[in-house]
Design a protein that fits this description.
Blueprint (H helix, E strand, L loop, with lengths): L2 E2 L5 E2 L32 H22 L1
Antiparallel strand pairs: 1-2
GO biological process, one term: receptor localization to non-motile cilium
Protein name: Cilia BBSome complex subunit 10
Pfam families: BBIP10
Length: 66
């Protein structure tokens, strides 16, 4: 396997595998796009908070008017 080279250093023979996980892939990896998800503009929680704030503003306006 190893023999002396011209400069006195051992030579190692290079071995390249012909098959394997890296070399046997048939296609290039590519991006996979999924369907877009429809998201609400406002969440239900945000809508509830806005409704509560509106009700409190109306209640405060009524109590100040009395």
């Amino acid at each position: 396997m190893s023999s002396k080279g011209n400069q006195g250093q051992p030579m190692v023979q290079e071995v390249l595998p012909k098959s394997g996980l890296i070399f046997s892939e048939k296609h290039k990896p590519s991006e996979i796009l999924c369907k877009p998800k429809i998201m609400p503009l406002k969440s239900i929680t945000l809508e509830k908070l806005e409704e509560m704030q509106r009700q409190m503003a109306e209640f405060n306006a009524e109590t100040k008017g009395e």
